[in-house]
Write a structure and sequence with these properties.
Rossmann fold, 7 helices, about 230 residues, single chain
């Protein structure tokens, strides 16, 4: 029997790590795919390497994409990362940490890798509940991209494979994501979430991503292993 394989998009954060654990629990061997896209929090790639190794990925690709040349985001330019936002305002509008077309670009690489490796399944940790309001994390975007993916490759057009994009976290709260990952044995100290970490790797504790992470651990009643520069 041939072992099933899946492509998993891996940033090194809570969501993508939990998604990888779910893919593994679903019985897949993993091709992990990460991106060095000029993000200011490039330290997340070190976390991604640890996570891929932990889950014994068949291969971990880190692809360079110079999105910093385009800019348009606090994550890929010199704009300051917003901090200290009231929690209830997170997700109420599209923030400047949104990176233009990021998930569209990432998924395009994923379908290329999926075709080459004959992996009909792609996992991505997008979330449309406890998230920052990014348009490319919504179900309608994923559904449209999956339809496009099956029109875009030789093997799908020839009927040799059909690509399915899995979004197991899309309707989960951050707390439920953390509870699920904890039940699957994830060591969240391997992960990184902060958009603006210190040079020594400490999380700022005040950006949107840190606020969502901290609230998630609190509501899940799971100890947060993160080193924060501020509490």
């Amino acid at each position: 029997m041939v072992q099933k394989t899946a492509v998993v998009l891996l940033s090194g954060g809570i969501d993508s790590t939990t998604t990888m654990a779910i893919a593994k629990a679903d019985g897949f061997d993993i091709y992990a795919l990460s991106f060095d896209y000029g993000q200011r929090h490039k330290i997340e790639l070190e976390a991604a390497k640890k996570v891929a190794e932990h889950f014994k990925a068949l291969r971990h690709l880190i692809i360079e994409i110079p999105l910093r040349k385009i800019g348009g985001s606090a994550l890929t330019s010199d704009m300051e990362v917003p901090k200290g936002m009231a929690f209830e305002k997170i997700g109420s509008s599209i923030p400047i940490t949104y990176v233009p077309a990021r998930n569209t670009i990432f998924l395009a690489f994923a379908i290329g890798l999926a075709e080459v490796t004959c992996s009909e399944d792609i996992y991505i940790g997008v979330n449309a509940l406890d998230y920052s309001g990014y348009p490319d994390c919504r179900p309608e975007f994923i559904n449209a991209f999956e339809k496009m993916a099956n029109l875009a490759t030789q093997k799908t057009v020839e009927g040799k494979m059909r690509i399915k994009i899995h979004t197991p976290l899309i309707k989960m709260s951050k707390a439920l994501i953390i509870k699920t990952g904890t039940e699957l044995g994830i060591d969240y100290s391997l992960t990184h979430s902060c958009y603006d970490p210190s040079d020594s790797g400490e999380a700022c504790g005040a950006c949107e991503s840190c606020l969502l992470r901290k609230r998630g651990f609190e509501e899940a009643e799971v100890l947060d292993p993160t080193r924060y520069a501020i509490s």
